[in-house]
Amino acid sequence: MTTGKISGFWDDRQCLETHSFVCEKARPDISPPTEPPPPTKNPCPDGYISWYLNCYKLVEELATWNDAQDACKKQGGHLASIDMSYDQAFVAGVVLQGKADAWIGLRRMVDGSYSWSDGWPVFFTQWGPGEPTNHRQEGCVSMHASKWFHGTWNDTKLFLLEINQIKLSRIYH
């Protein structure tokens, strides 16, 4: 995900570039089926934002895609996966809070297909104009944070961590 003129769009980048990133993990208080928590209490760990069944955290430390994924795993999550336009809008809003493009959990495989770091198939994409390019062996995906292309993707430094709330409830309870 990138910032500036192409904010929110996706872009393919070299995996050894350093970006912040977006991680995702399960909220600790949810086991399906459940009722939503009271609006005054954040069900996610400190520093995370709740969205549906997951918690998201924008990590503004620069990291390669692999290092970002490892950092997310250490916190019980993975780089953020985006399954639909609602998730895209939310994650793009999170990335916009940062100062630079952010890694998400999408990466090109050896066969040229793309796969999410959590193993889900790719049902939705939000590529920036002309992306993915495979320029200079790019294959890791970031989200643009710029206002002109906000939320679109680039195959390419901030990262967004995602944790599943269901898994968190097992960890914290």
UniProtKB/TrEMBL annotation:
Pfam families: Lectin_C (PF00059). Residues 51-155 form the C-type lectin domain. Gene3D superfamilies: Mannose-Binding Protein A, subunit A. It comes from the Eukaryota. Coiled coil: none annotated. CDD domains: CLECT (cd00037). It comes from Oryzias latipes. This is C-type lectin domain-containing protein. PROSITE patterns: C_TYPE_LECTIN_2.
